[in-house]
Every structure is written in structure tokens, then in C-alpha cells.
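This part of the workshop introduces the protein records we will be handling. The question running through the whole workshop is how a given chain folds. To make this concrete, we reproduce a full record directly below:
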Amino acid sequence: MDKCELLEFLDLNEHIEADDVARVFELTYSAAAMALMRLVRQDLAARHKDPETQLYVYELTPKGKARLDYLLEDEFDDR
């Protein structure tokens, strides 16, 4: 899983938990949580606690969407 794949997953899905990322990308929970935290630190994703489950959920920020668009455009240009 690279950054573009994770950003795209967040773009296509709402309120993602680290467990979701771990399951879809076949990662350990720790690896998924760390990948998501790197995006949060870069302001590419935001996180907040779900009031019902008390688990962190993640979503793409506007900056993350812009980065994804840039990466996909660059990928398309390379073809």
C-alpha cells in the first residue's frame, strides 16, 4: 500500500477506522494506524473519536484531496 492508495481509499469511503485499512490492505492494525497517523501529521487526513464506538475514525482533508488529485494526475501523465 502506498500513499496514493491510502488517500484514494479514504476518498472513496467515509469514517474509516484503522481496522478497515488493516483488513482491506492486509496489514497489521499497528501498521495501518501508523500509516493513518502519518497522513494526519501531514494534514492529509483528519481523525476524531466516534461518540458511539469511542474509536478513532479518519477522513480525507481538503489538502489530502488536493494531494490525491495531484498524484493521480501525475500517474495519468506518466502513461
